[in-house]
Design a protein that fits this description.
single chain, two-stranded antiparallel ribbon, mainly alpha
């Protein structure tokens, strides 16, 4: 099953009212084609969806490690929604993508006085300068809340998924919840271990 299909199936399985409309909005506004970062992890088209699914898989693994039935069933929908939507704001908003190609000017030489611009191989994408800067955690909650009703715990987990790495760290410290910690740990493991490890392996093969 492809990444997009798995994400859609998981979100629909939560049976959260309005989810179909949210998925349509995600499709229309580039969630499934956006990069996950400018240069660090999964900085390529489709990286955002891939990362979101990686986080969901890891979060579900943690849920099954920490809890048994019926607690697993109780937490399942919130884990899926928080994990798959934690970086929703990275797709952009108001018809503007969050990331745009980082185009560099070619080197001018006598043989090539008008070189074609090219996309930076080291930092393929940059934050869109035409989009007013808002933290992606906040932007994601704004987008999701237009279509579905997030629970208090889900909103908190999405808002604080970066934990002490977030600009909101001082309001979060000491106020962790079980769900917010599961999403944070899953996000860190996916971004810092799984995805960076994959990139290193790909580099070695080249």
């Amino acid at each position: 099953m492809e990444i997009k299909e798995r994400i859609v199936v998981l979100l629909l399985e939560t049976e959260r009212p309005g989810m179909e409309r949210l998925i349509e909005h995600m499709e229309e506004n580039g969630f499934f084609s956006s990069p996950c970062s400018g240069s660090y992890h999964l900085a390529y088209e489709g990286g955002l969806a891939e990362h979101s699914l990686n986080v969901c898989d890891m979060a579900m693994n943690l849920l099954h490690t920490f809890y048994e039935q019926p607690h697993i069933e109780y937490w399942r929908n919130s884990v899926i929604i928080s994990a798959l939507l934690h970086d929703l704001g990275k797709m952009g908003q108001f018809g503007k993508p969050n990331y745009v190609p980082n185009m560099l000017k070619g080197r001018v030489t006598k043989a090539n006085p008008a070189p074609e611009p090219y996309q930076s191989p080291k930092k393929p994408f940059v934050t869109n300068p035409e989009l007013i800067p808002v933290e992606h955690e906040i932007r994601g909650i704004q987008i999701a809340s237009q279509f579905i009703e997030l629970t208090e715990d889900e909103s908190y987990a999405i808002l604080n998924h970066n934990g002490m790495y977030s600009v909101l760290k001082y309001t979060y410290s000491g106020k962790e919840t079980a769900l917010s910690m599961i999403i944070h740990w899953a996000d860190m493991w996916a971004a810092r271990i799984v995805e960076v490890g994959d990139n290193e392996a790909e580099g070695e093969e080249e």
